[in-house]
Amino acid sequence: MRILNYQRMSTEDGPGLRTTLFVKGCPLKCRWCHNPESISFKPLIEWIAVRCIGCKTCVDTCPRKALSAEEDGIKINREVCVACGKCVDECPTVALELKGRETSVDEIFKELVKDAAYFGKDGGVTLSGGEILAQAKEAAELLKKLKERGIGTAVDTCGMTTKENIDLVFPYADIFLYDMKLIDPDEHEKFTGVRNDIIKENFNYLAEKVKGTDKHIWIRTPIIPGATDTDENIRGIARFIKGKYERWEMCAFNNLCRDKYERLYQDWFYSKTELMTAERMDELVMIAKAEGLDEVYRTGATKLK
After folding, report:
1. Which residues, in sequence order, are CB contacts of 210 under 8 Å at separation 6+?
2. Distance CA 127, CA 161 (A)
3. Distance between CA 220 and CA 218 in Å, rounded?
């Protein structure tokens, strides 16, 4: 599998305490993406300024001369860099990181089961992205091994996949964290790069599959100012998912990923966007509940008065 990293002691990717595995590659290109390094399926190198001592070891090490030392730090020519990782291996202060490494399912499993002691009754492992179902065959193999060890499992998906991929992981996933960002197809394409017809079709397919099973669907909607935070969008999602889910989480926008975009030499559309207010988040929850929905919650930090 091509993975990014493990996030331990997570409380936001399903019930209880969890370890979340993030993988690389996503078919969506959401303007607000908080893990921009996960979008491309190709590995890449990131330079972290606060760790760098300016020794230029990386510049001398790179066999393709893709790195250069400038006044404002190390620059990576991404047209030349093939992310071989040699600069990462030689950097004495870990100021360079390889994002996206090929790792066997067995190796990932061994890393994840180290955390089993703190999962408890409700916790477990969540597979996230990028888009985990873009690596559905390997994900299913990993989930199966986790279930055999008695570990709870969750799959976090944007839904832009195939029914066959859903079928592969379905037997081994206890919870599906299903993203519903925008209900209108045109708006969805505007902000994510793709229309949501397949996403909605797959949601209905999954909702039918979980009937009569002990599996669960949690809906997650990122509440993004000027994009997903409209009354119409929340009302539309509410009507679409009604009766087909167990829990709906509205996840408040945060701007903690700004430095990630800087390390990728990218401008972020939301770099100066303020956080949502608690009042507005509560309003959106009430709009959903007014449509007859239960188990609707807001999560994430909000703007301080």
Report:
1. 176, 216, 217
2. 15
3. 7
In this prediction, residue 264 carries a pLDDT of 87
Decide if 59 contacts 68 (C-beta within 8 A).
Answer: yes
Q: How confident is the model at residue 212 (pLDDT cuts 50, 70, 90)?
A: very high
Q: What is the mean pLDDT of residues 41-70?
A: 95
pLDDT at site 58? 97
- Record the tokens describing residue 140, joined without a space: 């299913």
Q: Which domains are present in the chain?
A: 2-40+101-299 (3.20.20.70), 44-99 (3.30.70.20)
- Neighbouring CB atoms inside 10 A of 33's CB total 21
- Determine contact, residues 162/204, Cβ cutoff 8 Å: no
d(CA 57, CA 304): 44
Burial of 1 from C-beta contacts in 10 A (0-12 / 13-18 / 19+):
buried
pLDDT digits (tens, 9 = 90+) for 47-61: 999 999 999 999 999
List pLDDT tens digits, range 264-297: 888 999 999 999 999 999 999 999 999 999 999 9
Tokens of 200: 């909605």
Helix segments in 132-183, DSSP class H: 136-148, 163-169
Could you tell me the two tokens for 178? 């299903």
Cβ-count burial of 89 within 10 angstroms (0-12 exposed, 13-18 middle, 19+ buried)?
Answer: exposed
pLDDT digits (tens, 9 = 90+) for 149-189: 999 999 999 999 999 999 999 999 999 999 999 999 999 99
Distance CA 10, CA 24 (A): 19
Q: How many angstroms separate the Cα of 167 from the Cα of each of 98, 126, 162, 209, 211?
A: 32, 17, 9, 9, 14
Which DSSP symbol is given to 275? P
